Amino acid sequence: MQLRPWIILTAMALGRVAFGYQFQTVATLTPGLMGRFGLSYAEIGSLIGAYNLLGVFIAVPLGLLGRRFGDRVVLGAGLLLMTAGACISAWADGPAGIAVGRTAAGAGAVAMIVLQGKIIADWFTGPRFMIGISVSVSAFAVGMGLAGLVLPPVLAIYGLRGAFLTGAVPAGLALMLFLGSYRVPPHALPVPRRFSLPSRRECLLLVIAGLAWTAYTSGYSAFLSYLPASLASRGYGVALVGVVMTVATWGNVPAILFGGGLAARFGGFRIFLIGTLFLAIGMVGGALAGWPLAWAVVLGVLGAIHPGVIMAIGTLSARPENRTVGMSLFYTLYYLGGSFSPTLCGVVADHAGRPEGGLLAAAAISVLAVPIYMLHRALASHETMLVRA
Hints:
The chain is mainly alpha-helical. The chain is 82% helix and 0% strand.
């Protein structure tokens, strides 16, 4: 069935939409949470980081479970846990209960994203590989943008409980579509069920690629986490904040897809450097200057042409038979950074007395991706890796 790979990709993209939506929920609801519970920016950052907390500890075990029990069981269980976690947060009576639900949902997201890259590589080869990776990566931004559009009116009508409950919808849809469509690809190489890790060289490349991905995603996510509070404190209205957040997130979708094609034509390294440069410029401009919509275009569109390149390099750093466990190493570092970067940026914001301090800290984190990526490039031939795909 020729449509099956695309249906499976759609299911995983929906799961990634749910991931972005659930992750962004607290940031979008920051004014309501601070008003109701009297939270500081650092406490808001901790609540945001709770979504990534368990990923540091369970990414590798889930990769090993994926090898032992198969992609369908582990990824399906992850989507189920994402759905349940959103419901737990919705029925919580305080920040602690919300954190429990977010931690549970985040644990499910670990299973989902650890296996995504491997499944895409199983079903998509040649030029379709970069397309599949780019669709998966860009779906996260779709979820973040949806949170900015959906949650404010839902909060006004149904309160915090209704707002948190909406996070179960995309995860539940992804679960049903994935279970109904996924099969083991007929051409897939047999995966050893015994315990084993990738080779030492593969582990090194995976760790370095994971650090580059961590720097990019931690900086970008932390920036968007504090951007609504920054714009509100500077007197911008709710409507403009919503438009800015939509451009800064949904602008990623065509940019990432277009960036995949540009990387194939002009080389991943050039696209990576250009994208990182625009991302940093947009972040600093958004923190220190006016014209928020213009800076949203810079960081959300021009600064989003390169994440597919980082993800592709990470996925291809391990051989097919080691890819499930390999991506769990990759994402362990991502979760480590994602757990602490919002809190770190929140501490900087509290110290500065304004959320703009958190925005500048996020920009500094994102720039760290450049030397890390260059180290990976010095150890591996990226052009050869992408041609093999």
